[in-house]
Design brief:
CATH topology: TIM Barrel
Structural class: alpha/beta
CATH class: Alpha Beta
Mean pLDDT: 96
Order of helices and strands: HHEEEHEEHHHEHHEHEHEHHEH
Low-confidence stretches: none
Radius of gyration: 19 Å
Strand order of the largest sheet: 5-6-7-8-9-10
Number of domains: 1
């Protein structure tokens, strides 16, 4: 099977010649350069041979054009938090207007995507990373978001409309340039940040609008359910092909999650334990458990979120070999 055929079979919960898998990570040493990020992403893909390629930009790429400034501190997972927010008062929400794609931070992500799509090493669906509008509203405003949702809801709603329009323009450009889907990260459907009523009003309608627009034109629509205390049933009801969440740390289990979604599930491996400090045998046992939970179908093996930069190269290579994947160990390990 080709990588695309393997992924498509998993989405339909059909048998595959081997378990499909995919891994992705931040590259904080180089991710402020579109060209350098593309090369690190491609070397990573060539080394580990994932069945889809996710392009992972800086965590703040989508809010930079509105005035957020990313800090210099690199977190353990490889992202940098915002050092200065764009929204610091109710009036600041008025600054959030649709962004044109030319010569912007969004365009930098498109450039990285194009460089990956056209490269001969890319042998699978290539996906940009997109954060949901309510997730970006928090990046723009920090903890004051919850206050403004209650006290200034129309100002936030107007901004969410502008963010949504920008995302739709971005995805139009990505699909035109050869992207074959979307990795859509929802960081807002968690009771750690919002009530179900808040997400139902300020999150879900925009998520549904974006996914409804993209999915008919995409080969692979992945919904990344980020964080703990997830509103999983609401996320499961969104239009997507595959659902990814940290099943090992946050739950639900793969078995329970698969029973609640119509497509494939992505996960089963712990990025913070087995893939960081474990052996190939330990991570293989984790993979076998994931396959057993899913009865060998409808599963793409992966982690619940990004691999940390300090993951064990030897452990990951050992796992991929054990499940029949292809690695190139003669390459320089991507930084």
């Amino acid at each position: 099977m080709t990588k695309l055929e393997r992924i498509q079979a998993a989405l339909k919960r059909q048998p595959t010649d081997r378990p499909p898998y995919a891994f992705w990570r931040h590259f904080p040493d180089v991710d402020r350069s579109a060209a350098a990020l593309a090369q690190s992403t491609l070397r990573f893909h060539e080394r580990y041979g994932s069945d889809f390629l996710k392009v992972t930009p800086t965590g703040g790429y989508a809010v930079e054009d509105w005035g957020c400034v990313e800090g210099s501190e690199v977190m353990p997972d490889g992202h940098r938090p915002c050092a200065r927010h764009a929204v610091n008062s109710p009036e600041d929400w008025k600054k959030i207007r649709p962004v044109a794609m030319e010569s912007t931070a969004w365009a930098g992500h498109i450039e990285t995507l194009i460089r990956c799509v056209v490269d001969k090493r890319t042998d699978c669906p290539t996906l940009p990373t997109v954060f949901s509008p309510l997730s970006l509203a928090r990046k723009l405003s920090g903890d004051r978001l919850n206050y403004d949702l209650k006290e200034n809801p129309q100002a936030v709603t107007d901004a969410l409309e502008a963010i949504t329009a920008t995302i739709l323009s971005f995805m139009e450009a990505c699909l035109r340039e050869g992207a074959q889907g979307i990795f859509y990260s929802v960081q807002a459907a968690s009771t750690s940040f919002h009530s179900e009523e808040e997400y139902a009003r300020f999150g879900e309608p925009y998520d549904r609008r974006i996914l409804d627009a993209v999915r008919p034109r995409a080969l692979l629509t992945i919904l990344h359910c980020h964080g703990e205390n997830l509103m999983f049933d609401r996320l499961a009801a969104l239009p997507a092909d595959a659902w990814n969440w940290d099943d090992r740390r946050s739950g639900p289990s793969l078995k329970d999650g698969k029973a609640r979604v119509p497509g494939a599930v992505i996960g089963g491996l712990s990025q913070w334990t087995t893939l960081k400090d474990g052996t190939a045998e330990e991570v293989k046992a984790e993979a076998d458990d994931a396959l057993a939970q899913c009865r060998g179908a409808g599963l793409i093996l992966g982690t619940g979120c990004v691999l940390p930069p300090g993951h064990s190269d030897a452990t990951l290579i050992g796992l991929i070999k054990a499940i029949g994947g292809t690695v190139k160990i003669g390459l320089v390990k991507p930084r």
